[in-house]
Amino acid sequence: MSKVDLKVVLLGSEYVGKTSLLERYVYDRFRGSIPYQNTIGAAFAAKEVELNGCRFMMGIWDTAGSERYEAMSRIYYRGAKAAIVCYDITNKTSWDRAKFWINELRRFEENCKIYVVGTKVDVFLDKTIQRSVELDVVTRYTNGIQAQYMETSSKTGENVQELFHLISTDYLANPENAQQLEETIVLNERDKRGSCCLIGS
Questions:
Q1: Which class for 87: exposed (0-12), middle (13-18), buried (19 or more C-beta within 10 A)?
Q2: pTM, to two decimals
Q3: Domains (ranges, CATH) in the chain?
Q4: Do residues 148 and 82 make contact, with C-beta atoms less than 8 angstroms apart?
């Protein structure tokens, strides 16, 4: 299964942990003290998902966070069915940039479902660290735009699997997506039968 059925895009400022989030979900790893190189353009990873008796391929585009790659990021969220818009819960500037990307999605990809994610929640183990934006402000905003909100830690794995499970569940809950997936499965089965016939002839 190589075709991407569910296109997901990661958006947000640099250093908010988009790449860490992707790696924790797809490869179940966290690099810790090993620094990540800034993503240039976008990185891609795919994972086969099985849910409620359905199997499909999720393709995840991890876009560059630097503003100089902003125009390039727009290329990668075209046609995305889900967008994970990340911000660092200790960084107010990253929250402002998250709202910028949400406005972009609303303008250009209105059918894309948005998931706002506060990253690095493990920092609260240090009682001296405070939120840059109060939680009620974030939840009021996300409720107002009808987006899902979740807080994650790629370091501990907290809520990472839950986030992608929610995205997958929402994807299958859309009748249009379910129908497209069923049609793809039927076509794949026909292709397989056709190949068998050719081999035997």
A1: buried
A2: 0.87
A3: 6-173 (3.40.50.300)
A4: no
